[in-house]
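We modelled the chain as a single entity of 476 amino acids. Its sequence is:
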Amino acid sequence: MQTVMWFRRDLRIQDNKALYHAFNDLGAEDELVLLFQANPAQFLEDSPNHQAFFGSVQHFKGRIDEQAHLQIQYGEPLDLFAQLKETLPDWNKIYFNEDTTGFGAKRDKEAKKFFRQNGIEYFRFQDHYLHGAREIKNQQGDPYKVFTPYYNQWKERVKETPLKVRFQADSVHSKVLFPEDEKKFDKLVARLPKQTKIGEEAATRQLKKFVKNSVEKYEKARDIPILDETSHLSRYLRTGEVSIRTVWQALQEEKPSQGRNTFEKELCWRDFYNMIFTNHPRQQKQPIQAQFRFIKWENNQEKFEKWQEGKTGFPIVDAAMRQLKETGWMHNRLRMITASFLTKDLLIDWRWGERYFQQQLIDYDPASNIGGWQWAASTGTDAVPYFRVFNPTTQSEKFDPEGKFIKKYVKELGSLPEKLIHQPDKMTKEEQEEYSMILDQDYPSPIVNHKERRKRAISMYEASKEYAREVQAHEE
């Protein structure tokens, strides 16, 4: 008999729940088929997101193939499972770590129907989060809408410990089942740029580095982009190259500190946003707060492109957007600043920004990214109030006071002194000549007036609220 281990975004061997149980449950005469399916319907070709993920798949396959074989199928999952059943008529069990949001939830639902129809026993596991989307509910048995009471219950819950997987290469089916699909996969990954710092070992090294050097000072240092003291674990959690339980255990082995508490709270936000997306499956396309579904965004394409390129005339925004374009990653404080700027200064629909981040981020996680964008746009659950609008200049002065981060990415501002770095548009003609930085030639003037746009944004949100009330009254 053949059992299948279906890998998706869990590209590791250790502390992989489904893999652990698949090996443990194997009979003496059973074979385990290790499988990854590449579905073109999910590709974002040539995007940093796509390149990073499939670079990790390629690395993981290389590691498995050193001792066994990771089978590759290329196409739509239900067609592929039909082919697999035809190729292996004795296949009767499958193990996988479930998804409860987005494309993954829809795929899993359809796959489970196929398994039932074809007499295949399936075993699914909650592997991606410390607490799954259905675990923590309020006293009425409903999902939480506000973070703080969710967190208060979350932090009291016992967390699972990592599982030690004994990889049994002799029990793995190592003959290539779909050679043509593997050739397609080889062509896919051959086009990828060279990837570094990927894989389970790299993830483990980064985790150790973070808990040893940065976690204690995380509370204060995490908001300062130039210090680069965030964990950089998000890209590994996104691909499953490290398990969330392994991260949690590493934290518990460190001495208690405010920094550790703050980072643990960030892990709670990750669980919270997954819970929200599971219970609001349409949130990628629709604001959770119904009162803000009628905002009349300006959606100026030219301004959107200037935001993408880091040419808005607001140095901290431009530095952040250039960091994203150059590295495929952005500091979390800057994600909030740039999202607020797009929605409340440029008055552009948050969904435009969310889609752009989806393409660009090497650590793209739908639940966290959508949740973050709805938070910044004041349209989501427990979001920042709509009348609270980040002032990009104030944020710049607070979190990059000496302008070191700005100068790292906006090199044309490198000659400016601290007093001018946050608002180069305030320079006199004499200062522009002195520092060889001519406005609208070397660097743009601000493309909007923040004070004016703040007022306009608030009025837009209030108009949406009023219209929503009228619609509700009419329906009643």
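As a brief sanity check on the tokenised model: The radius of gyration is 24 Å. The mean pLDDT is 97.
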